[in-house]
């Protein structure tokens, strides 16, 4: 199923087909921030970023805009990830594996699993009804569920795809697409707020590139070279999954003199690698220029920078996530200048972390937006 995700669901071509969805949802984000900050009010940016990421992923996965169903699904996914990521003594002491049953944790997980299964079953059923009514012509509005149903019917993969496979893939895509994109934008914007020099330089680039167009479109994002560096620096300091995903050695290995027995569960500390002074000058400093004219990128080709993993097990959703991150950040710094509430100085911004499925800000990023139009009118023809 990993091949399905990488080749069929999240290829560059497929991600490109979701461009109208990204632009539409980001336009809603800009409009919402504009309304929320119209009177100089404080806006909970973290909450709005999460809503935008989930909106894009929900529409790409399910091909629908149903706010009630989306809100229910988002809450369910959040509850599941928080429950799974929570600390449990039995994780440290396997002999206490009976505790989750006694505390009700296992029953709680079962209830959430059944709720998610029921909701996904309904969504798949709706797609099947829609496909039957359209005579199979899905090419104009094909979403991830449609793609998986096509593969199931055609048998093109050479092995059967079950409904449970489809549910699992979609749930994972939604979780990864929502959580990682939200956290990457949240942390990178936080770093820019804390470092006004970087913010000013990035804003000048995006406003110079898009000038008086009044909107940031994906077709021009490739020109934002400095913003690319800003995003990579954000990923270096704040990888969405600091320990990546656990792996298991299939056979005994020896690495740098250390014996790794077969069946060993291995965690890769991407957070520590990204801050290792052997590879990074002033590793704790947010300095995007370190990526200018550098061969390093987030695709895992160099092991000193692996925010999404590396090799065959690298995250298959990189293109999907980075495309969303870039258009969100570009719009946020194009349309708005930002102030901290209460007259707080940028360097005093609280950057305390909180661990869940990914590393979040302990406190939501709350800012006062100042519309770019109000302070620097664009030229008109």
From TrEMBL:
UniProt-annotated location(s): Membrane
InterPro entries: CYP450_71D, Cyt_P450, Cyt_P450_CS, Cyt_P450_E_grp-I, Cyt_P450_sf
GO molecular function: heme binding; iron ion binding; monooxygenase activity; oxidoreductase activity, acting on paired donors, with incorporation or reduction of molecular oxygen
Family annotation (PROSITE patterns): CYTOCHROME_P450 (PS00086)
Statement: the UniProt record of this protein carries the keyword Transmembrane helix: yes
Coiled coil location: none
Membrane topology reported for the UniProt record: Single-pass membrane protein
Co-factor(s): heme
Residue spans crossing the bilayer: none
Domain of life: Eukaryota
Gene3D superfamilies: Cytochrome P450
Cited Pfam families: p450
Predominant location: membrane
A GO CC term assigned to this protein in UniProt: membrane
PANTHER family assigned: OS06G0641600 PROTEIN (PTHR47953:SF19), OS08G0105600 PROTEIN (PTHR47953)
Protein name (Swiss-Prot/TrEMBL): Cytochrome P450
């Amino acid at each position: 199923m990993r091949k399905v995700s990488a080749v069929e669901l999240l290829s560059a071509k497929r991600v490109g087909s979701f461009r109208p969805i990204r632009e539409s949802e980001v336009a809603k984000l800009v409009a919402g921030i504009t309304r929320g900050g119209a009177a100089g009010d404080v806006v909970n940016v973290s909450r709005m970023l999460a809503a935008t990421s989930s909106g894009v992923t929900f529409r790409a996965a399910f091909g629908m805009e149903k706010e009630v169903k989306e809100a229910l699904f988002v809450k369910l996914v959040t509850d599941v990830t928080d429950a799974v990521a929570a600390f449990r003594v039995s994780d440290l002491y396997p002999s206490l594996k009976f505790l989750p049953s006694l505390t009700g944790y296992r029953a709680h997980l079962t209830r959430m699993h059944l709720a998610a299964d029921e909701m996904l079953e309904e969504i798949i059923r709706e797609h099947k009804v829609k496909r039957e009514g359209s005579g199979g012509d899905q090419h104009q509005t094909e979403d991830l569920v449609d793609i998986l149903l096509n593969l199931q019917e055609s048998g093109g993969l050479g092995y059967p795809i079950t409904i449970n496979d489809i549910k699992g893939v979609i749930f994972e895509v939604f979780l990864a697409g929502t959580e990682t994109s939200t956290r990457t934008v949240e942390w990178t914007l936080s770093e820019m707020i804390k470092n006004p020099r970087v913010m000013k330089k990035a804003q000048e680039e995006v406003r110079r590139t898009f000038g008086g167009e009044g909107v940031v479109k994906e077709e021009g994002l490739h020109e934002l070279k400095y913003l690319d560096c800003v995003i990579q620096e954000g990923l270096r300091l704040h990888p969405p999954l600091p320990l990546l995903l656990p792996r298991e050695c299939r056979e005994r290995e020896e690495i740098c003199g250390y014996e790794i027995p077969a069946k060993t569960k291995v965690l890769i500390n991407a957070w520590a690698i990204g801050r290792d002074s052997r590879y990074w000058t002033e590793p704790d400093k947010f300095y995007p220029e370190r990526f200018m004219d550098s061969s390093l990128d987030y695709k895992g080709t160099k092991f000193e920078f692996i925010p999404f993993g590396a090799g065959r097990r690298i995250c298959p959703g990189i293109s999907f996530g980075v495309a969303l991150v870039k258009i969100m950040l570009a719009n946020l710094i194009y349309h708005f200048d930002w102030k901290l509430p209460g007259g707080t100085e940028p360097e005093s911004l609280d950057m305390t972390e909180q661990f869940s499925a990914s590393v979040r800000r302990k406190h939501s990023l709350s800012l006062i937006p100042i519309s770019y139009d109000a302070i620097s009118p664009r030229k008109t023809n």
